[in-house]
Amino acid sequence: MMTQNAKGKKVTVIGMGLSGLSAATLLAREGADVLIVDENAQKPPLPLPGNIRLKLKGWSEHHLTDTDFIVLSPGVPRSKLPTEALKKAGIPIIGEIELAASRITAPIIAITGTNGKSTTTTLVGQILQHWGLNVFVGGNLGLPLSEAPASQWDFVVAELSSFQLESIQHFRPRIAALLNLTPDHLNRYPDFKTYQETKQRIFENQGPADHAVLNHDDPLTVPPDYAADTVYFSKSHVLDRGVYLQEGIIKSTVWGEAEEICRLETLKGAAAHHIENALAACAITQLCGCSSEGISQTLQAFKGLPHRMAFIRSHAGVHYVNDSKGTNVGALMQSLANMPKPVILIAGGRDKAADFDTLRQIIHKKVRVLILIGEARHKMASAFSDHPALKHIDSNDGMKAMELAVSHAAAIARSGETVLLSPGCASFDMFQNYQARGDAFKKCVEALP
């Protein structure tokens, strides 16, 4: 791992998002001469250290080969780089995660998966903090991992995306968790197998003293070859070693005899809607030494994340739930599975080469009315053409489309039903991000007369 100080080195950072800016600042603090290149970015809102230069338009291969090494932001695919020229010039390429991890001395807990990783990462951080520890929580969630080396921590908890895992080399977390796998980002990867293999890279540098936390109910999470000690979690199986749900009780056999962590009926808040994430968080924090009592108290107090199955209000007996963070087919399927009553579903957005046919069974079972918005609405309508109640919102203006969708849902919803925004698609066709989409939904719901 590249642990040496970068003082006096010439470094090119590709991409000026949060991760790129954070990596550049970390390197500048060490005394590197940093160049940030980004074809699309505007100038940063805050002044940068004097040893950081910007090239935002018209950068060329010269800017990539006249350097000691390159730091690649996760949003930039490696395929965009002149890899042969860089290989010939002997220019190493590392990711922001690799750079940051090489400068972190605390044990790293790394969490990935198609869905639930933000919730699980947040839960793990809160349980460890409840235990009285100084914990950094970030990565793909909140603060970039490159912010962590600036302070001393007891644990570093990092949510990692497949994009971030593409560029690891020696990254070795003390505990690594792969929560689940369903098709996603197939507009970036040639097939699901490549996406799966990228996610499983989280385990590739672990040794027998490290821990791999895996979903016993999802065999796709298990890599073909890994060296770490295995701990499972499961909603449907009693485990010899792991955390599982049995007759409404969360139990753990991580350290031997089965012990009760908490009863499902005591989880009145968000943890009750994210039970698999709660099980994974229990397994991870048990491995860290947390007590069952402390874990239970945190689960019972957990309020959840904005835009992830977040209850907004009840209006005329109808519940409104914001799941704008459900940006893929797997997330939408999971959200519908957790809904006990009939649903009026608002879905659609920018397609990520998803197979919407996999949703047909649960859509017909759970969704009374399907309201479609965004670029993917025609493809989704084709997949669900035999649904008895299908509504198109034919507007490409994000706020207008959301207003029309919510007003239509409110007009037809029956008392006891739920209006759920769970798009199953990216937001970038009509909104800046999923947060803006969720905020638009919330604003429309709160404005109902």
Question: What's the short story on this structure?
Answer:
The chain has 449 residues and is an alpha/beta fold. It has helices at 18-29, 61-65, 83-89, 96-101, 117-130, 162-165, 192-200, 275-287, 292-301, 329-337, 360-366, 377-383, 398-412, 434-446, and strands spanning 10-14, 33-37, 52-55, 69-72, 93-95, 108-112, 135-139, 155-159, 175-178, 211-215, 229-234, 242-246, 249-252, 259-263, 310-315, 318-322, 343-347, 367-372, 390-392, 418-421.
Q: Can you say what the CATH homologous superfamily of the largest domain is?
A: Mur-like, catalytic domain
Number of strands: 20
Under CATH, the topology of the largest domain can be stated as UDP-N-acetylmuramoyl-L-alanine:D-glutamate ligase
Which structural class do you get from the secondary structure elements?
alpha/beta
Mean pLDDT: 93
How many H/I helical runs?
14
Query: How many structurally independent domains?
Result: 3
- Helix percent reads 25-40%
CATH class of the largest domain: Alpha Beta
What is the second-level CATH architecture of the largest domain?
3-Layer(aba) Sandwich
Q: What can be said about the biggest beta sheet? A: 9 strands, mixed
User: What is the global morphology?
Assistant: globular
The radius of gyration computed from the alpha-carbon positions, rounded to a whole number of angstroms, is 23 Å
Question: Which helices and strands appear, and what pairs or packs with what?
Answer:
Elements (H helix, E strand, L loop, with lengths): L9 E5 L3 H12 L3 E5 L14 E4 L5 H5 L3 E4 L10 H7 L3 E3 H6 L6 E5 L4 H14 L4 E5 L15 E5 L2 H4 L9 E4 L13 H9 L10 E5 L13 E6 L7 E5 L2 E4 L6 E5 L11 H13 L4 H10 L8 E6 L2 E5 L6 H9 L5 E5 L12 H7 E6 L4 H7 L6 E3 L5 H15 L5 E4 L12 H13 L3
Parallel strand pairs: 1-2, 1-4, 2-3, 4-5, 6-8, 6-9, 7-8, 9-10, 10-11, 11-12, 16-20, 17-18, 17-20, 18-19
Antiparallel strand pairs: 12-13, 13-14, 15-16
